[in-house]
Amino acid sequence: MLFLADKLHLVRYGRTITGDDYWALPHGPAPTTVLNVLDAVLRGSVFPGSRALLSAIEIDDTVKHPRIRATQEPDWDCLSKSDIEALDLTLERYGRSSFKKLWKLTHSMSAYKNAWDQRGTRRSSPMSFEDFFDGDHDVVDGVLEEVREDSETREAFAVS
């Protein structure tokens, strides 16, 4: 679901909500930083912000794939109006979808398929933000060009 919201926001506004990078994993697209933080929490690791995160979620680890549920309202001030719009629309469109339906949807998207096909013998592969635009009916004219320009600028001024 987070991938779908980030993808929607990217193709409409030129940036993702999370600012995260996505990788194609066997069960679908995954935001790397978010996944790493959740993995650390599930392992019981302590890191800056872990106590705050643990106080805001409930983890059901009695099942094969742990389920995480929010236990408090989010801090809406951390999100822009367009972030909230994209999250709301994503929930409206896909909130009642089964895992199987979401799996089929995300695995059929160019961004996922291209990355998955390029992984070789690895279990995962980075996804290209440019591929997020391919075949998406939410694309706003000119946004892909902005994303490309932003990427080129970041590369030109990257600190090694």
Word description of this protein:
This protein has 160 residues and is mainly alpha-helical. The protein has one domain (2-156). The protein contains seven helices and five strands. It has helices spanning 2-13, 32-43, 50-56, 81-94, 99-107, 110-117, 143-156; strands spanning 22-25, 28-31, 57-60, 67-70, 125-126. Strands 2-1-5 form a three-stranded antiparallel beta sheet. It has a two-stranded antiparallel ribbon with strand order 3-4. A hairpin with a 2-residue loop joins strand 1 (22-25) and strand 2. Helix 1 packs across helix 4. It is globular and about 45 Å long.
The average pLDDT value, as a whole number, equals: 90
Q: What's the Cα radius of gyration?
A: 17 Å
Strand order of the largest sheet: 2-1-5
DSSP helix fraction: 40-55%
- Rough shape? globular
Give the count of structural domains.
1
Strand content: 5-15%
SS element count, helices = 7
Distance between the termini: 34 Å
Give the helices and strands as they follow along the chain.
HEEHHEEHHHEH
> What's the count of strands?
5
Structural class: mainly alpha
- Poorly predicted residue ranges: none
Main sheet specs: 3 strands, antiparallel
Topology summary:
Elements: H1 2-13, E1 22-25, E2 28-31, H2 32-43, H3 50-56, E3 57-60, E4 67-70, H4 81-94, H5 99-107, H6 110-117, E5 125-126, H7 143-156
Antiparallel strand pairs: 1-2, 1-5, 3-4
Any descriptors?
160 residues; mainly alpha; three-stranded antiparallel β-sheet; 48% helix
